[in-house]
C-alpha cells in the first residue's frame, strides 16, 4: 500500500518534468511500469543488464538525466551499452555519449566514435549517431564567435541534421570523412 502511495506521489511530481518526454519515447504504459527507475538508482543500474532492450534504453536515459552520476560513470555506462546486442540500444548509447561529453573535446572518445562512423559493416543509424556525437563533443572551430553566436550556430547545425535525417533516413549525412580519418589512425591503404 505504501508503495502505491509513493508511486502516485512520484507520478504527480516526476511525470510532469521528466516522465512526459520519457512516456513519449517509450510509451505511457511502459513509462508507468518503469517508474521505479526514477525511485531507485540500483534498480536503474540493474535494468542495464535486462533482457528487454527497452528497459536497457530506458535505464540509460534515466541514469544519465535524472541521477547525479560522476562523468566517468556516465561515460562507462554509455561505452558499455555501445557493445549491446541490439542496434537501437547501441545507437542510443552512442548519442548519449555525445550528450555526456558535449563540448569536451575528448579526443579519445572522438577517435573511438570515428572508427564506428567509418565502419562500413555497422548499420547506418549507428554510423550517423557516431558522427553526430563527434560534432557534439568536438564542434567545428569557429574563431571570434560570441557565446550567443556559438549557440545560434549549434541550433542551426542541429536543425540541419534533423532536416537531413528526415529527408535521408537510410543514408548517412555528407560526412567529413577527412575529419574522421584525422581522428583515427586509419592506414593509408584504407583511405
Features:
191 residues; mainly alpha; 2 domains; 71% helix; globular; disordered C terminus
Verbal overview:
This protein folds into two domains: 1-68; 79-191, no CATH class. It has helices at 2-26, 28-33, 36-39, 41-47, 53-66, 71-81, 87-100, 107-118, 124-137, 147-167, 177-183. Helices cover 71% and strands 0% of the residues. It is mostly helical and 191 residues long. Helix 5 (53-66) runs parallel beside helix 7 (87-100). Mean pLDDT is 75; it is low at 1-18 and 185-191. It has eleven helices and no strands.
**Cα end-to-end separation:** 64 Å
Shape category: globular
Q: What's the order of the H and E elements? A: HHHHHHHHHHH
**Biggest sheet descriptor:** none
Query: Helix amount, in percent?
Result: over 70%
Q: What structural class do helix, strand and pairing data support?
A: mainly alpha
**Tally of individual domains:** 2
| Tally of helical segments | 11
Amino acid at each position: 500500500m505504501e508503495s502505491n502511495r509513493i508511486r502516485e506521489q512520484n507520478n504527480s511530481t516526476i511525470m510532469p518534468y521528466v516522465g512526459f518526454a520519457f512516456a513519449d519515447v517509450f510509451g505511457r504504459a511502459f513509462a508507468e511500469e518503469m517508474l521505479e527507475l526514477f525511485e531507485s538508482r540500483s534498480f536503474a543500474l540493474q535494468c542495464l543488464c535486462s533482457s528487454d532492450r527497452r528497459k536497457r534504453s530506458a535505464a540509460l536515459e534515466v541514469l544519465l538525466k535524472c541521477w547525479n552520476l560522476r562523468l566517468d560513470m556516465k561515460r562507462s555506462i554509455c561505452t558499455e551499452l555501445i557493445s549491446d546486442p541490439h542496434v537501437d540500444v547501441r545507437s542510443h548509447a552512442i548519442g548519449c555519449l555525445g550528450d555526456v561529453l558535449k563540448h569536451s573535446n575528448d579526443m579519445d572518445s572522438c577517435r573511438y566514435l570515428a572508427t564506428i562512423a567509418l565502419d562500413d559493416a555497422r548499420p547506418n543509424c549507428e554510423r550517423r549517431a557516431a558522427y553526430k556525437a563527434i560534432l557534439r563533443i568536438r564542434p567545428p572551430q569557429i574563431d571570434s564567435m560570441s557565446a550567443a553566436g556559438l549557440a545560434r550556430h549549434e541550433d542551426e547545425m542541429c536543425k540541419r541534421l534533423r532536416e537531413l535525417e528526415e529527408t535521408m533516413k537510410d543514408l548517412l549525412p555528407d560526412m567529413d570523412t577527412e575529419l574522421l580519418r584525422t581522428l583515427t589512425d586509419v592506414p593509408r591503404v584504407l583511405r
